[in-house]
Structures are given as C-alpha cells and as structure tokens.
Design goal:
single chain, mainly beta, lipopolysaccharide transport protein A fold, 27-stranded mixed beta barrel, 12-stranded antiparallel β-sheet, 3 helices, 42 strands, 4% helix, 58% strand, elongated, disordered N terminus
C-alpha cells in the first residue's frame, strides 16, 4: 500500500509540470505514460514517513524528496488520501525536470487519476529561461488547465534588480491550456513593455509549444512605396498534412490593386518540391515608354530535387516572369537575368555524368529575349582513372560534352567535344615538384546562321548550315620548388612556379561560334590553367610560358599573409582570340597578382590586381578590407576595371562600397552602407540600420535609398521595420 502510494506521489511530479507549464517547450501530458511512470521504482526521503491505516493517509513530511524517472519533487509535506484517491503536496513544492525545467508552487492537490486538480501560486522556469506564473490553476477533464491571473514572458530578468519587469510579458485574467486541441487561450490579456501595458485584447488564441505547424493567418505586413502606394499583405498558411503546405499571400495596394502570391511545398521520401508564384492585373510600362493598361503580370519560381538511387538524382528550377520590371517593382527579386534548368546527374566514385536543359530570360531594357540561347541538351561525362596508369601516380581523364544550342531568332549550333589527357605528378629528390600533362581536345560543330569571325548572334545576312571542327593537342610541364624558412615567430614559404605549354597556334577558326567563352578574365586564379577560357568554344592556343612566385607566411599568433605575382609569355601574338584590353593580346602579358594580409583577427586585407606590362598602370583592381572588432567594424570594397572590351555589359567601371557596423553594447547595434559609382560620381545605394536584439525580442529598422532607374522603376527611398517576439511570431512592414 505504501509503495503504491509513493508511485502515485512520484507520478505527481510529471503531472505538476505537464499540466501547468502553459507555454513551455516541453512534452504535453498525453506524451507521458503515467502507468509506466508508476511502475518505475521511486526513491523517497523525508524526516518522517507514516501510514494512518484507519484514515487511509500516507504522509511524508519534513524535507520531502521524491526521485523517479529522472524527476525530483521537493516539498515540506506530501499526503496521499487512499480513500479519496487524492494526492496533496504543500509547502515549497518544487519539481525539477530532467531537461532542467523547474516548477514551483505553494500548494498542489490532484485526484489519483490525475484528471482533476488545483495548484496555488505556480511558477515555471523552463530550460530556456522562459517564465510562467499564475495565482492559481485548475485542471479538469484530464486535458484542460485554467490559470487565474497568469503571466508569460521568455525574457530574462534584470541581474541587478530581478524584481524589475522584463522587456515584454503577457498578463491575462485567465489563461487556458487545452491539451487536446493543443491551444493556449487568453481572456482579457495585455501585452506589456517594461511593465507598461501597450496593447489590449479581450481574446487571444495560439497553438501551444508542442505544435510545429498549423493552418491559420500569419502576421500581416504593411508598407508604402512610390509604385505600390499604401500596401498591406495578410498571409494565410494551410498545413495540408505532415508533408504538404500552402501559403497564400494577397497583397492589396492603393496604386496597383490586388496581387495574389502563393507558395506550395511538398516533402517526399526521396526529395522535395517548392512552387511559388504571383499574379495581378495592372498597368505596365512597355520598352517604348507606352503604358499598357490592365495587363496580366506575374511570375513563377519553382524548384525540385529528387533522389533516384545512391548514384542518380534529377531536379529542376523554373524562373519566369511576364515582363522585365515586374519582379523588381513588386520587390520579389532584383535579378537582371532569370535562368531555368532541368537536370539529371549521377556521381559514382571518381566519375560524373549529367544531362541538362537551360533557358534564360533577360530583364534589362536592352535585352532581346528571342536572341537568348535555349540549350537542350547539355550533356557532360567526366572520368578519372585510378592512379598508377603506366607510371606511379599517373592517371588519365576523359571529359566529353554534347551541346545543342538554338534561338528563336538567330544562329544555332550543335557541338560534340571530347578532351582526353594523361597526368603524371613527380616529386624530385631535392623537394622540387613536377606535373606533366598531355591532352587532346577534339571538337565537331554543326552550325546554322553563323557568320565567320562575327559575334553577331542574329546577323541579317545569316548563311545556312555548315560543319566544322578542330583537333587541339597540348603538352604542359609545370614546376614548383617550395622553400621554407623559420624567421623568428614567422614561418615563410617561397615558391617559384613555372610552366611551359606547347600547342599549335590558330586553333580558333572563325567558323566556330563563341557561345560559352565570352566571359573571360585574366587574373591570378587562371594564369596556370591550360585553357583559361570558361567554356570549350575557345581554346588557349599557341606555345606559352607561364611563371610566377608565391609567398606565404604564418604568424605565431594565428595570423597569416600571402602574395603572388605572375606573368605569361607567348611565342606568337594571339589577338584574334584575346581582345585588346584583355591583358593577353600581346606576346608578353600583363602582370597579375594578389596580396593577402591577416596579421590579427580584427584585420583582413585582400588586394587583387592586373597591371599593364609597359607602365605598370592598373588595368583591373579589387580591394577588400575588414578592420575592427564587433564594437566597431569597417568593411571597404573597391573595384576598378579599365576598358575591358571583353565585358561589353560594363565597359569602364569604378565603384566603392563602404560598410560600417558597430555593436554598441550587448543588445544594440548600428550599421551604415554606401555604394558609389566613382566614374559618374553618383550614389547607387545608401542604407542605415538600427537593431536591438536580446534573448526574447528583436526590433530592426532599415532605411535605404536606391538610385537605379528602369522605366516604371524610379529612384526610391524606403523604410522597413521588423519586430520579432519569441514564441509569438513576427510583424514587419515598411
């Protein structure tokens, strides 16, 4: 009889917590197996333990401690009335949960079946320091708990004065925890900041912490802009089941009417799918400046990825919009080019295979989408053999590519390309390192509408079909000789590098169109690559010699430094491939290099450059520096490009971006950013942000001004405010 009573007393430990922790992140009462808990051995200590057989009372008094299943209950007195089947704990009642949660009360009275009960002066401290308190609580039906005069707050109390009100808290005359519906309901509730009531609601209902997802309205967003006017969005979330959900977000604005946005998500056993999009009927400014009234405008943004087996997977990404400025006008996306792709790829061991389809949509005013390429298919196969072929460490590679590129208007091309190579590394007896490479690239082209030696993708005098090809062999020997030196607290490595590449000249006939090698940049990252073009339509032909020196240093305090300087010399000029301003149009190339310095944790500097070979004048410069601790941190980025004809989109360019951030104290931080076009001496974007964040609350304000203009998009100044309450959600607008 005594031990059965003690089992019920120990079960009380679980019930106190799960029944009266209104808003904590712990398991609900129905998640605990009470019968299993009762059958678990309990350890009880007390100054006095007695059993009144006449009255049917089991009483433990004086420093009572009950331990069972990792839970500990402390009280001055615990009584079990066998006849009434009622458990009572009184006097400094404390429950300590295995997860660190602590529940305190002055008096607890529960029926033996744990379905009915009363608690007085309950106080809950969860593991994440969330605090819950109430004058009293009543449990009915085994699944409903009502609290009188309840207070909830996840904010930590002031260390200097714990009696001071937290940053925010919710006070209510009545708080009900419906454990069957997993709801928390407030009646006559106030939201208080620093003890001052700021918002009243007669009724508030939200899911309890055991609920991960539930259908319902999300926090609204409000804002204003020159294009939209005043706007408000009220999202609705529909949790279809455990693997699917839909979010519908209507946006109503005074200038553009109603815009409907939606997102569907589906999690499969072997992959995931997301489909988002929007649509509206509104005015649209055309490229010629005319305004088209009441036109459908919208977009789709979808992606999916699915595993077939351990080797293969397939997926897609779809991004399309009805017109050029829609995404930027409604603040969905600031991209200037949208890409869509479908793919099937496999990876096994050292080998990789993929088949892709690609399509693009340009959103700049100058873009002509009928001339954008449609690539179906783009197939790749990459094979690397095991080492030890012919000689120790030697291996061979095969890289095959199939491309079919077409346009609605303009030239088409089909390409089959195979690059086969043999690679042999070798380490000399004095520490010198060699790498020998011999490879052959074989390309076959079937084209239509290609004018030889012309970059025009849609020529007026386009010829018919044609076939062409090439065989391009290369042999290269690369040498490195690292020297190491310990100089006090600095470890230094000096490494001269040289490479000789032997290949025929004139291997880029004008009949081969350049579709994938337009974006070319000669810099420190590709000086030693056999083909310094990004794609296969152009090859780095001719015999050349590449050389440079690399220095790295490691400091005793964990800092580091490094530098590289390199150049290339070609036996014959190659200006038919490398345009004027590329740095490789002459026999002797420009100098490329970088300098990196991180002497201490709060200083990081990187400078990359290309210098003219004749007068060492900068042709391209990139400078990034980060200085200072979080208390005051400076980010400076500078970019300079001198008339690089290979990048028609930009031409001359000189920009600087300055960012300054400061963490004023533990909670407050401020940030300023400014991006400026130095050639035109005009600001591109300026922004300032102010943030307060602690363990339970975040508020952030951002004000920015942009000076980009594109038809209906004008120079814009905006203010955005974001407020996040821990457990309650987020409200934003601007």
């Amino acid at each position: 009889m005594i031990w059965g009573a003690l089992g019920r007393t120990a079960a009380l430990a679980a019930v106190i917590f799960v029944s009266f922790a209104v808003a904590g992140g712990t398991a609900a009462a129905q998640d605990i197996d009470i019968e299993a808990l009762e059958s678990t051995p309990a350890l009880i200590t007390a100054d006095e333990l007695s059993y009144d057989e006449v009255n049917g009372l089991v009483v433990a008094s004086g420093n009572v401690e009950v331990t069972q299943a990792g839970r500990v209950v402390l009280a001055d007195r615990v009584t079990y009335d066998v006849n009434a089947d009622v458990v009572t704990a009184e006097g400094n009642v404390t429950l300590i949960e295995p997860g660190g949660e602590v529940v305190s009360a002055d008096f607890v009275n529960l029926t033996g079946d744990l379905k009915e009960g009363f608690v007085r002066d309950i106080r809950v401290l969860l593991a994440d320091n969330t605090r819950i308190a109430a004058a009293s609580g009543t449990r009915t039906g085994g699944n409903r708990t009502a609290f009188r005069k309840g207070v909830f707050s996840p904010c930590e109390l002031c260390r200097e004065d714990p009696t001071r009100a937290p940053i925010w808290q919710i006070k209510a005359n009545e708080v009900i925890h419906d454990q069957e519906a997993h709801d928390i309901i407030y009646h006559d509730a106030w939201l208080e900041f620093f003890g001052l009531p700021v918002l009243y609601t007669p009724y508030l209902r939200h899911p309890d912490p055991t609920v991960d997802r539930r259908s319902g309205f999300l926090a609204p967003t409000v804002g204003t802009s020159n294009f939209l006017g005043y706007a408000v969005g009220v999202p609705y979330f529909w949790a279809i089941d455990d693997t699917k959900d839909v979010t519908i977000s209507p946006l109503a604005s005074t200038e553009q009417g109603l815009n409907l946005t939606g997102e569907y998500r589906h999690l499969f056993p072997d992959g995931e799918l997301r489909i988002a999009g929007s649509g509206t009927v509104a005015d649209r400014e055309e490229r010629d400046g005319d305004v088209a009234e009441n036109r459908f405008r919208g977009h789709i943004d979808a992606e999916g990825s699915f595993e077939i087996d351990q080797t293969w997977r397939w997926g897609f990404e779809a991004n399309r919009t009805t017109d050029d400025t829609y995404l930027r006008a409604y603040d969905f996306n600031n991209s200037r080019t949208l890409s869509s792709e479908g793919y099937l790829e496999g990876l096994k061991g050292r080998n990789y295979a993929a088949v892709r389809g690609l399509a693009y949509q340009g959103l700049r005013e100058s873009d002509r989408n009928n001339e954008f390429p449609i690539v179906v298919p783009l197939a790749d196969y990459n094979f690397i053999s095991e080492p030890g072929v012919l000689l120790s460490g030697g291996h061979y590679t095969v890289d095959a590519n199939l491309l079919a590129l077409s346009r609605i208007e303009g030239r088409d091309s089909r390409r089959l390309s195979v690059v086969s190579g043999y690679h042999l590394p070798y380490a000399g007896p004095i520490g010198d390192v060699y790498e020998f490479t011999a490879q052959v690239q074989a390309d076959g082209y079937w084209t239509h509408g290609v004018v030889p030696d012309s970059s025009d993708v849609n020529p007026s005098d386009a010829p018919g079909g044609d076939t062409t090809g090439r065989i391009f062999p290369q042999v290269a020997v690369k040498w490195r000789y690292p020297w190491m030196r310990q100089d006090g607290s600095i470890k230094q490595v000096v490494e001269p590098i040289a490479q000789a590449v032997f290949a025929p000249s004139g291997s880029n006939p004008g009949e081969i169109p350049n579709e994938d090698s337009l974006d070319f940049e000669f810099d420190d990252t590709n000086i030693f690559k056999l083909n310094r073009f990004a794609g296969r339509d152009r090859v780095d032909s001719g015999t050349r010699f590449d050389y440079g020196v690399k220095w790295t240093g490691a400091f005793e305090n964990g800092g580091s430094a490094g530098a590289f300087l390199g150049q290339s010399y070609r036996l014959t000029e190659n200006d038919d491939v490398f345009a004027e301003g590329s740095g490789l149009e002459d026999k002797l190339s420009d100098l490329v290099g970088r300098i990196q310095l991180t002497p201490i944790e709060t200083l990081d500097l990187l400078y990359r450059f290309r210098l003219d070979k004749d007068d060492l004048k900068a042709q391209r410069s990139e400078f990034d520096v980060k200085i200072g601790p979080p208390a005051l941190n400076l980010n400076l980025s500078y970019f300079f490009l001198n008339n690089d004809q290979n990048i028609d989109e930009f031409g001359d360019r000189e920009e600087v971006t300055l960012g300054l951030s400061s963490r004023l104290n533990e909670n407050w931080s401020i940030g300023v950013q400014h991006r400026r076009d130095l050639l035109e001496d005009r600001a591109l974007r300026s922004a300032v942000s102010l943030t307060y964040q602690d363990d339970c609350f975040l508020i952030q304000g951002v004000a920015q001004q942009t000076n980009f203009r594109d038809r209906e998009l004008e120079k814009d100044t905006s203010v955005f405010v974001r407020v996040v309450f821990k457990y309650l959600g987020e409200v934003s607008g601007g």
